[in-house]
Amino acid sequence: MPRSSMVDLKPSHRPIISYRPIRPADLDVLEQIHGDVFPIRYESEFFQNVVNGRDIVSWGAVDRNRPNGQNDEIIGFVTARLVLASESEIGDILQCDSSRSGQTLVYILTLGVVETYRNLGIASTLIREVLKYASSIPTCQAVYLHVISYNNPAIHFYKKMLFKCVRRLHDFYFINVELAAVVVTCMRNGFKAMAARLWKHDDKSPKWSKCKESWGLIRTTQTKRVLTPEGSGCECV
């Protein structure tokens, strides 16, 4: 269960949510929110990389109607990075053209919203920011992330966003000295068109080809991972 939230559980005002890049001044708040919503501790280097844009892109949500001088304090966030498709866990599923070098994926690292502000569409909008970013990269083939296999609300959320569960990796992460399985979710074909539709607030369901599903065990040659900020597998929406 998350530790106490940074804001009152029932704000007396009507939120006005806007979005902006995360910046150095957000460091302390970003660290505290991660501590509130995730069951793991992130290293300070991760937060420094986020707020300074070192190989990580990020967006924050703020409540412009929040009182007491907190109207620019982030209450939600998403962090992501660009990775080579050939170095990801789903390169074989995507079947990228081996003759084309430099094909990439956008990997979502963390996504979270302060408890008080959930169910307001903030997480969905943050994901749209990621899709828009990915659609602007010519070499990007897909957007993907890890979700802990027992985090059913997060899995349901990504399915609503038209991500597909493409692989289950058993005993993939060490969390609190225990092994945990993760589900890899991916959006591939049509994500650029979907990004455009999302930004136009089109209510119709976008049509896109489904990814090949694979629910097999992780290959025995692949080593287990200690949970790190670069691959949390934890999503709190």
Topology:
Blueprint: E1 17-20, H1 27-37, H2 44-51, E2 57-63, E3 74-84, H3 91-94, E4 104-113, H4 122-135, E5 140-148, H5 152-160, E6 164-175, E7 178-187, H6 191-199, E8 225-226, E9 235-236
Parallel strand pairs: 4-5, 4-9, 6-8
Antiparallel strand pairs: 1-2, 2-3, 3-4, 5-7, 6-7
Helix pairs in contact: 4-6
Structural features, described:
By secondary structure, the chain is of the alpha/beta class. It contains 6 helices and 9 strands. It has helices at residues 27-37, 44-51, 91-94, 122-135, 152-160, 191-199; strands at 17-20, 57-63, 74-84, 104-113, 140-148, 164-175, 178-187, 225-226, 235-236. Strands 1, 2, 3, 4, 5, 6, 7, 8 and 9 form a 9-stranded mixed sheet that branches. β4 (104-113), α4 and β5 (140-148) form a beta-alpha-beta unit. The longest helix is centred in the middle third of the chain and has 14 residues, at 122-135. Mean pLDDT is 76; it is low at 1-8 and 202-237.
The residue-averaged pLDDT reads: 76
Order of helical and strand elements: EHHEEHEHEHEEHEE
Q: How many strands, what sense, and barrel or not for the largest sheet?
A: 9 strands, mixed
Question: By helix and strand content, what is the structural category?
Answer: alpha/beta
Q: Determine the number of helices (DSSP H or I, runs of at least 4 residues).
A: 6
Helical coverage, percent range: 10-25%
Label the overall shape: globular
Rg over CA atoms:
18 Å
